[in-house]
Amino acid sequence: MAVETLSLAGKTALVTGSGKENGIGSAIARTLARNGASVAIHYASEHSKARAEKVAMDISREFGTKTTVVQGRVESYDSGKRMVEQILDAFSVDHIDILVNNAATSCNVPIMEVTAEQLEYEFGVNVFGMIYITQAVVGVGQMPRGGRIINIGSIASRLLGPPPVYSATKAAQDALTTLWAGELGTSHGITVNTIAPGPVPTEMSKSILEEPDGSPTALHTALFAQTRAGNRLGTVEDIADATLLLVSEKSRWITAQWISVSGGITGTI
């Protein structure tokens, strides 16, 4: 009897916001590629181009899998559509099997100080962007039955802690996961789930977890105290491995779920 695996051989994946070598997105891309998927690395701004290209090159060199690099603003449907068309052409395929909505931004300011521009940008990337990319991948990318959509959320949506606008955008994502799971499951045979990381040290989370002098913030200390699985914060690999489980064929009956990958944090802030 053949040993069952989590192989993604023959699958094509897009991981948004995966162009930084030390981020959650690139770790997910590496893990999908390690298990056989062709992976599109996405970045938004021109100053991230070199880093994204290096992520793709390193993945191809290490795992021998196909990669491509696409640039675009997720908060624009036209940009998302163009990126999907580029991915199909680069891999010579007619569909995308896996979408990981990882691209995100956070304006870590109190609610009374947030500006209209910050609100529009944060909701644009974190909420509207997720909608537009999903529309492009399912529509133009013709995601087939058995397709997988993973939305990278945050335990912030349930803990109701700072930053306030970011937490609100992640709560909106949670609602979309449940709604899409019903709509895309019955009509397209696609599963949709949210993976909600706990505290993971990355460039984006640095201002939330670390004071200017390098000491842990009060939030960092509070979350660390609630971690049950081990005496540490999470790692990007922890999030990537959980993603692998949910995009595999073995997750066919798991959808509309919010799955905390936080080492067991359950309390409120």
From TrEMBL:
<dbReference type="InterPro" id="IPR002347">
    <property type="entry name" value="SDR_fam"/>
</dbReference>
<keyword id="KW-0560">Oxidoreductase</keyword>
<dbReference type="InterPro" id="IPR036291">
    <property type="entry name" value="NAD(P)-bd_dom_sf"/>
</dbReference>
<protein>
    <submittedName>
        <fullName>Uncharacterized protein</fullName>
    </submittedName>
</protein>
<dbReference type="Pfam" id="PF13561">
    <property type="entry name" value="adh_short_C2"/>
</dbReference>
<comment type="similarity">
    <text>Belongs to the short-chain dehydrogenases/reductases (SDR) family.</text>
</comment>
<keyword id="KW-0521">NADP</keyword>
